[in-house]
Structure formats: structure tokens, C-alpha cells
Amino acid sequence: MYPEEIVKPMKEELTSIGFNELLTRDDVNIALEKAGTTLIVVNSICGCAAANARPGVHLSLQNNKKPDNLVTVFAGVDTEATNSAREMMIPFPPSSPSIALFKNGTLVHMIERHHIEGRPAELIAENLKEAYNQHC
Asked: Which 3 state secondary structure label does DSSP give 73?
């Protein structure tokens, strides 16, 4: 587990733009039971989360269509919620950071770590916007 003082600003990058933190298995289940679309960001302490994933997600929300629900778990910190979210992302292997879009509880779009590493935030945002335009 990482120290709270290190993780807090990384969590706030998402919660400050409207994401709800999920801390338990029940939180994940409740989030995915909601009708409509839900974006889950598996946040991480790694550099590609800071440089690519979180900024890409932020940019993606500057779109006419966007998910109804925005939620996040933090890998290595919110273990129960992260494991539960990852179970919902099967058949994709666990990776962090990662970004998943669900529609009515069904996974419809997935961005894994290998799609985030080395790619600019703008490219990640465009990928997400295309998914929002198709599913939201």
C-alpha cells in the first residue's frame, strides 16, 4: 500500500472532475448496476497514469457525449474495489492503469495499460471519445 499523502493528489485528479471513488466490492457492484454508461478508471501511481491516462480521461470528457457515471479505483490502495472491478473486466488481464466503459453493466470498451504506455493523452482521449460517441 502506498502512503496516503502520495496517493491523495493522484486520486484528486479524477475526483475533482466528477469521478466517485469506489472503495469496496459493494461500491463496484452498485456502480455497475446503474442504468446507462459507466466509466471505470483503474488509477495507478505509475508514470503512464500521470502523463497519459488521467490527462487522457480528463480530455475525453470534453465531448458532447459522455458516460452517465464516472468512477475510479486505485490499484495498490483500494484493493477490494480494484479486484472487484478487474473481475468485471474479464477476459482482459489485470492492468493498471486501465480504463473500461460499461453499458448497463456490460463491458463495451477497454483500454489496457499497453494501450496507455507511450501514447499521448490526446490519443487516449480520442479513443475514449469514439467509444462515448458509439455507446453513450
From this structure: strand
Range of the domain at 67: 4-135
Strands 98-103 and 106-111: antiparallel
Block residue for cell numbers 446503474: 34
For the chain, what is the domain count?
Answer: 1
Q: Which of 46, 73, 101, 121 is catalytic?
A: 46
Assess whether 46 carries a catalytic annotation: yes
Angle, CA 108 vertex, CA 103 and CA 110 arms, to 5°: 125
User: CB-based contacts of 17: which residues, under 8 Å, 6+ apart?
Assistant: 58, 61, 70
136 flagged as catalytic: no
All three cell numbers of 94, joined, read 489485470
Task: Note the pLDDT tens digit of each residue in 14-52.
Answer: 999 999 999 999 999 999 999 999 999 999 998 889 999
- Which of 7, 32, 42, 48 is an active site residue? 48
The CATH number of the domain where 17 resides is what?
Answer: 3.40.30.10
